[in-house]
Amino acid sequence: MWSDFMASQSQQTVSAAGATGDDVALTAPDYTLFAITCFVWGTSWLGLRMQLGVVAPEVSLVWRFALAGIIVFAWAAFARQRLRFGAREHGLFAAMGVFIFSTNFVLFYYGGLTITAGLLAVVFSLASVVNFLIGIVFFGHKPEPRRLAGAGIGALGVVFLFWPEIAGTTFNREALLALGLCVLGTLCFCFGNVLSARAQRQGLPILSTNAWGMLYGTIWLVILAAVQQHPFIVEPTARYFGSLVWLAVFSSVIAFWSYLTLLGRIGGARAAYATVIFPLIALASSTLFEGYQWTVPAIIGVVLALAGNWLVLGGGKRQLVNKGG
What we know:
Elements lengths: L1 H12 L14 H23 L6 H22 L8 H25 L5 H9 L1 H13 L5 H22 L6 H29 L4 H22 L10 H29 L1 H4 L2 H16 L6 H18 L12
């Protein structure tokens, strides 16, 4: 799932670099990069669920971001990106660590104790909707009618999607609480996006920024775990270690590299449609491996949520596949 956040923060801050890519015909490498991004991020939600049970979410996240942070630091050093910064920059990195490299994941992990991987992914995919609303409320962005409609449709889709979980034959308080945690997690991520955008406007290199953010996020997770007296243990199973490697290495590093490369090749507008595709993969994996039961309201909810996301991302202005290519 690391996912998931790198997509949003990168699409906001690298849009200028992708401006020329929006008109470029897609090639076989482009499709490959897009497929890698969608598949890894789509299945990472199932990996998140595999982490739950024995080890406290905060502790699992310590291992996950410690491993991912080491890799990204090494990547930044290999790429010869600047790693030394002043106190002001470190303050920004620390805030990013709290919002998008720790707290939002803690909330999703606890939400994942109740709801399936597919539902987690759909809620998070609406980060683009939340980003749009934050822009209106806090930054005075113009509320475009098409995107306002998309935000409303997306929210309605989540209501439909979770209605069978919340209502059922009796009111399901746990499902409602899990949904609330995931919404709060998405809000944390989106506020973290604002900080990430600020870092990019200051010209801070993205790999170094994220490496330091992961370090501070890991420190914050250690504090959270220690305050709650969670033991720093691991679950000695192939399932746990496999999901840890998948989340830290593949989701946090390989898919991130694929997405950033894709941004430079085809532009942010088309690359962002990964946020429409990966929830479908997450729902498919949830159906296969978690026994997720589809209902008519759930189907309607998925269609509405993804349609709302599509409208907010740009509607019909740009297409994923260039007709000329």
